[in-house]
Specification:
Elements lengths: L2 H9 L15 H11 L4 H8 L3 E4 L2 E2 L12 E2 L5 E6 L4 E7 L8 H6 L9 E2 L3 H8 L6 E7 L2 H8 L1 H10 L1 H26 L5 E5 L12 H23 L4 E5 L8 H6 L4 E3 L10 H8 L4 E6 L4 H4 L2 H15 L5 E5 L9 H12 L2
Parallel strand pairs: 1-7, 7-8, 8-9, 9-10, 10-11, 11-12
Antiparallel strand pairs: 2-6, 3-4, 4-5
Amino acid sequence: MNSRERTKLALNHQQPDRPPLLLWMVPEILERLKKHFNVNTHEDVLDKLDIDVRWLMPDYAGPELKVFEDGSKEADFGYRMKAIVNQFGTYEELSYHPLASAQTVEDVNNYNRWPDPDWWDYSSIKEKIAIADRVEPRWLGIGAASFFERSWAMLGFEKMFHDLMMNPELVHAVMDKMMEIYLEQTCRILEAAEGRIDMVYIADDLAGQHGLLISPETFEQFLKWRWKHFNDTIKERFGDHIKFFYHCCGAIEKLIPGLIEMGVDILNPIQPKAAGMEAQGLKDNFGKQLCFCGGLDIQDLLPNGTPQEVKDEAGRLNHILGKDGGYIPSAAHAVQADTSVENILAMIEGFKIQ
């Protein structure tokens, strides 16, 4: 059974030969694994670990993205990211919000830095597919669409929450732009792939460790119907076989019924220390309607546990979330730079045990 067959079976709630695997990692971990395996590329590492799920994006070919005197870098939407160094590695944090002073829908429409889908080179997609499939057919995902997170990146975090209540038309205008741009870009990627893409990634971090950042009512008003339109449009144009992979950190248990209604097939990253996100409860309550991806704790266990403890927890999650299929095992987000190679290998080994 190859990767694509294995993942398709699991996502149809059937039992594959072993659970299909996904692995995300920060750059420091990627470099460590390259050295461990004595290989040169990200794909080489994934092949060595026999990771089933692969992600593709077209190359950016638009206007040059500026670097500013403070070291911050311009992103495609015009907000800026600045590298912040800690004891383990480097992260990028938002440092500039281009719509921070916007007050009206006209301000949003007059913003002259909205990206054009023409700014990406879709001709590279076929080559990327060939690289991902070079060992065997893999389960291929594309996209990085986000409405909530990208909107507050444009407006600023505090302003976003203020405007959700006090100036909702402004937020609607920003999200309308997001939906227009991301939907067109996603369709162009799928067209370039000529039927070879299996899954579309969409994302909005809507919760913290203990609860939601927005109410279920606000989710309904601003996000649920937009994502349903996005997902329905993709399926109408490219087929019902396309799966939707929704990334949302934190304690989002109260939103899961709405996620199912808007067309989500796979929920990620299943943060186990967040309230209401325990594996058994999720499987019992939603396992027949939804698949899961993630679940292995990166806050404590993966960086601080022994390899045997990590392996045992990976096996436990397989037993719970992978019963009768419906599970893509993975860490509960990108593996962080404070994690040992030994624990990463133990996690992968544990996840492969049926």
